[in-house]
Prior knowledge:
The chain is an all-alpha fold. The protein is 68% helix and 0% strand. Helix 1 (34-70) runs parallel beside helix 12 and helix 2 runs parallel beside helix 10 (275-291). The radius of gyration is 22 Å and the shape is globular.
Amino acid sequence: xxxxxxxxxxxxxxxxxxxxxxxxxxxxxxxxxxxxxxxxxxxxxxxxxxxxxxxxxxxxxxxxxxxxxxxxxxxxxxxxxxxxxxxxxxxxxxxxxxxxxxxxxxxxxxxxxxxxxxxxxxxxxxxxxxxxxxxxxxxxxxxxxxxxxxxxxxxxxxxxxxxxxxxxxxxxxxxxxxxxxxxxxxxxxxxxxxxxxxxxxxxxxxxxxxxxxxxxxxxxxxxxxxxxxxxxxxxxxxxxxxxxxxxxxxxxxxxxxxxxxxxxxxxxxxxxxxxxxxxxxxxxxxxxxxxxxxxxxxxxxxxxxxxxxxxxxxxxxxxxxxxxxxxxxxxxxxxxxxxxxxxxxxxxxxxxxxxxxxxxxxxxxxxxxxxxxxxxxxxxxxxxxxx
Length: 387
């Protein structure tokens, strides 16, 4: 769910690019001044902060209203926390933005696959191991899975093969991984945005049809539409890609503006009110952050929360449920159990982030740098004078 800091991937243009006919001109003056570069970094670090807030919203939703729905709390929680379920949708928008940026900076599909594998799998495997052991030790018993199912979770193909999730939150990771496959096939297979665009139009159109006639989808198409094409969520990723292109080019041609509007409008029919309005508001917040109006979010605490958001997502749900159950069994207040679960989840997430996630990324980057040769380096690097 989480990506590496997008601030480190800012693309700042020094030229004055004139918008063409039918384009949407954003007032993003990305010239090569120190002040503007600083603004661009802040704009993208605001996305990291949003990721941290989205992760926290998901955690609180699971620990409070969703736990109450499953097992029952001894106290009530604010109704607004029900909207935390849709924090995942903001993750999907962010993924569309960041992954398309990553694709444009990665030469081959193999390099992209390796980068994604090192980014996601080491922390995922550790999270699966921790969650599997914790649930067998602490419960809840209805959340235990077999060792075989845990092994299949390591591949992120378990849902397609009929195995349960080690942690309920992993459903979105399966969608993320499937999105990576599709977008890599489109990007590297078609090679040009003008050829990718029709495929995205078709995908969005299918997504509308899928959610409108959700219950009428024939069995022969059920797996294709609901799982492989994930029609309830695909436009979230596609809109993130288009917002990235608007950010990069400071404009969008009319046909992409129409596709963006159609992708955003999908949430109004895919989700029930008032949650569809909440997702629409997430789009607005996302766009404001990209445009630089939410730089106030770039606080150290929120940026740190964003940095651990992926590992927090991996380990929070079932381990937290076990700790809340343990608190109730000890006769302690349920609120204390929620606090204990939240503190433990954040602590475990930090351990995985600093102990596994970051070292794995550092190893991959070093390995990639060691494999680089003068023939594969940019001209500016190979022609640099001896120092």
